[in-house]
Write a structure and sequence with these properties.
alpha/beta, Aspartate Aminotransferase, domain 1, Aspartate Aminotransferase, domain 2, 2 domains, 7-stranded mixed beta sheet, 4-stranded antiparallel beta sheet, 17% strand
């Protein structure tokens, strides 16, 4: 399987540092996530039911009439290649690698494209990560809708992964999901900090969602996950407050890295991305102090997630030890 951030147990073994002593900045997950309350006994005791209010809460939050809850967007990523005959699929050469991997595993022709210069000629499917992970690039709604129109004219799909979109909802394609061939993926893992609940959504035309639902089968979400997701999606006050806090924290992270000579090349409200030829050395130097960041080898780069409120000083001290490297 592909490598991802959050491999904390492996890092603890490699560097012989106990789990509880790590500062994990490797995932891009909100470190101050939505506070999960005690759940009702029925969430554990009964089979999940679709008329529990989750779909209505999600439709209101995402501003779209048609969506399908799934066990994280990863389940959708793996299912979509099975719903088309073999075709030619374009994906960004820097981006969340599970997309290309899933289509390749299903036998499709996979074409890497420069993430900042995408050409959709001769493609049947285009995958866009918006905001891109890890570069942070955000494509405009107009450009994406132009691509959707051109692809749909030849029976193609535009798949837009919006895992990092919550803080900038005006850039989302969710309101356009009734358009032919448009599929938008969302997740509660990043903004809400609920990655362990494994809750994601696909939004698309009804006939495509019905195909996806048939493929995935019943009970794609557990009862506890459905209850947590419904309550989180309805908590408007927490959402508004968190948007402001994340934007402030991301700017603080950008400034802190810049002060240490590590000016980011891109980012979102949940992470900053830095290209550097010294990426492996910096990652290792920080890891020896119990600070885990995400290393990318192509291109050589690092992704820094946000520290919790009480962890900024520790990151500052760790970055001081990296100055002789760069």
């Amino acid at each position: 399987m592909l490598e991802h951030g959050g491999q904390l147990h492996a890092a603890a073994r490699r560097y012989a540092i106990p789990l509880e002593n790590w500062l994990d900045l490797s995932t891009g997950i909100n470190p101050n996530g939505w506070p999960v309350p005690a759940l009702s006994p029925t969430a554990w005791a009964r089979l999940p039911e679709i008329n529990d209010g989750l779909e209505l809460a999600a439709q209101a939050y995402y501003a779209t009439p048609h969506l399908l809850p799934c066990a994280g967007s990863q389940a959708i990523i793996q299912a979509l290649p099975r719903l088309r005959s073999l075709c030619r699929v374009g994906f960004p050469n820097i981006g969340y690698a599970e997309h290309a991997y899933a289509w390749l595993q299903a036998g499709h022709e996979v074409v890497p494209l420069p993430y900042n210069n995408i050409d959709i000629k001769q493609l049947d499917v285009l995958i866009v990560i918006n905001h891109n992970n890890p570069t942070g690039q955000c494509y405009s709604t107009d450009i994406l809708l132009d691509w959707q129109q051109e692809l749909s004219r030849r029976g193609g799909w535009l798949i837009v992964d919006e895992a990092f979109m919550d803080v900038t909802p005006n850039n989302s394609l969710m309101p356009y999901c009734s358009l032919p061939g448009l599929i938008v993926l969302r997740s509660l893992g990043k903004f809400f900090g609920l990655a362990g609940a494994r809750v994601g959504f696909a939004a698309a035309e009804l006939n495509l969602l019905n195909l996806l639902a048939e493929y995935l089968g019943p009970w794609t979400l557990s009862g506890p996950s459905r209850e947590i997701a419904k309550q989180a999606l309805m908590d408007k006050n927490w959402q508004l407050r968190t948007c402001v806090e994340l934007e402030q924290a991301s700017l603080r992270l950008y400034n802190l890295l810049s002060q240490h000579g590590l000016t980011p090349n891109g980012g979102t409200a949940l992470f900053q991305w830095l290209r550097t030829s010294k990426a492996e050395i910096i990652q290792d130097t920080l890891a020896r102090q119990g600070i885990l960041v995400r290393l990318f080898k192509k291109p050589q780069s690092l992704r820094f997630g946000l520290p919790r409120n009480d962890e900024w000083d520790r990151l500052d001290r760790g970055l001081c030890t990296c100055k002789p490297i760069h």
